[in-house]
Amino acid sequence: MEIIIGLGVVALIAFYLISQYNKLIRLNIGVDEAFAQIEVQLKRRADLIPNLVETVKGYASHEREAFERVTEARAKSNSATGVHDVAAADNMLTSALRQLFAVAEAYPDLKASANFIQLQEELSTTENKVAFARQFYNDSVRTLNTAVKTIPSSFFAPLAKVGEREFYEVDDPTTRNAPKVSF
């Protein structure tokens, strides 16, 4: 009887250890997935930008600086890796888009263009998805970081090779909001 109780206790301990390890692995994978969703939405936004730029160029061909900034920011956004670099590139692109929309304000025919309106709506939808993806990522990071820092999960974090992750932060307060695209 003592052997059965002993084996039962060992089995419970083993089950507990495995469940804690698996919990940390699941949380870590969840953070990776959440960051991938940010990148998906930023890629979608980057794919919309050339169409938007070409539409605005047709009306405002002399506004070269705005187009160059958007193009440069898009290139940096596409090549960024890691949370900090992606966030910085995202901030730069958002700022460049603000400038592009400021240029568009000066052209009433452009603001009335069906193509521009459609692109504007798609970009607005994408900005909402980017904001949601950022929030989901930060929620996932918070959950993982809490597990990594609290007992009993903190004992298993080194075994699972899971550590704290950095939050997706917007450094420039002027880029904390999606660009205003209403005309």
Gyration radius, in Å: 23 Å
Strands, total number: 0
CATH C-level name: Mainly Alpha
Helix fraction, binned, reads over 70%
Please state the average pLDDT score. 84
Q: What's the domain count?
A: 1
Detail the poorly predicted runs: none
Q: SS-based structural class?
A: mainly alpha
The CATH architecture is Up-down Bundle
Beta strand %: under 5%
Shape descriptor:
rod-shaped
Main sheet attributes: strand count, strand direction, barrel closure: none
Could you characterize the architecture of this molecule?
With 183 residues, this protein is mainly α. The protein has a single domain (2-175), classed as de novo design (two linked rop proteins), CATH 1.20.1440.20. Helix content is 80%, strand content 0%. α1 (2-59) runs antiparallel to α5, α1 crosses α6 (153-160) and α2 runs antiparallel to α3. The chain starts with a helix and ends in a 23-residue tail after the last helix. The mean pLDDT is 84.
